[in-house]
Amino acid sequence: MILITGSAGFIGFHLSLRLLKEGYDVVGIDNMNNYYDPKLKEDRNSVLSEFPNYHFHRIDIKDKTSVADIFERYQPEYVVHLAAQAGVRYSLINPDAYIESNIIGFYNILEACKVYKPKHLIFASSSSVYGNSQDLPFSVKDRADKPVSLYAATKRSNELFAYVYSYTYNIPTTGLRFFTVYGPWGRPDMAYFKFTKSILEDGQVELYNNGTVKRDFTFIDDAIECLRRLIDKIPTDVVPYKIYNVGSGQPITVEELVKTLEKIIGKKAKRVYKELPSADVLVTYADTTELEEEINFSPITPLEEGLRRFYEWYKMYYEKHPIQGE
Ligand SMILES: NC(=O)c1ccc[n+]([C@@H]2O[C@H](COP(=O)([O-])OP(=O)(O)OC[C@H]3O[C@@H](n4cnc5c(N)ncnc54)[C@H](O)[C@@H]3O)[C@@H](O)[C@H]2O)c1
Q: Which of 5, 11, 227 has most ligand 1 atoms within 8 Å of CB, for mutation?
């Protein structure tokens, strides 16, 4: 039995699908909040619900009793914790959501793990923990104590909380610092998704810092391959705790992202240039040495190929489900 939190989210959906196809029993939990279109979450969840081995519960992880009840009922052997309030800029607008889901919610998961002792707890951290570090590429050996958004601070706190629980209660724990994961069924709040919509609908594409901002784009299938392999890599050190970067190691400018989308869609974007929001960093760039050593794999899909796969899905999905009000 594997518990996946945030199973109706982008990464949670893809991981659940992979494990369900492999025949695992998956317990999915999600509160289906409206940070972005909940219809997309419902639709992902409908795909998963076709599997008889998927057991979904709509609960909020900030509610300690609900979390404890799920652990008591299913006694999961593996816990993959992906539920969180994501997004760096939104943390300037609604900080409460980050404290509730990422701090209190995460603490509730750790408390349940303390009692029910899964074989392995895997949780999502983020590349944002590196802040504006000038040490490129970002290594898990680097210090990460200058976050520039509340989101990043909550993710870094998660790593520290998890270390304490791993140290104190001997819970094998792996934290994954994801770098800009994109692809089919992706998140509408992310640039590649918003840009695709804007290009198709003659809207504007907002570029920060003249489009020079760089991101280490990571295709979803590669991120899932890493997650899948790491589930079986249970840390055995004295303190059984590991952190990995999950990124492609190939930072690409946002200007290049727009050009690639223009090529795929066959239409020019209307660019507007804006100042970089304070919560955003200028560059992300993953050093994946430890990941390769551990699982003999690291993300490989070229951006153009991944974006083509995203675009195919986007057209298919929105032809079937036109965006409301349009
Ligand atoms: N996608 C990326 O590029 C990326 C990069 C770095 C880190 N991450 C992290 O990976 C994880 C998954 O990200 P994603 O892109 O799939 O995001 P997502 O927003 O699509 O998925 C998160 C899911 O968690 C659910 N959720 C949020 N708060 C909850 C709560 N209090 N109780 C129950 N469910 C709750 C949401 O409804 C959502 O379905 C997150 O922890 C995110 O911070 C993602």
A: 11
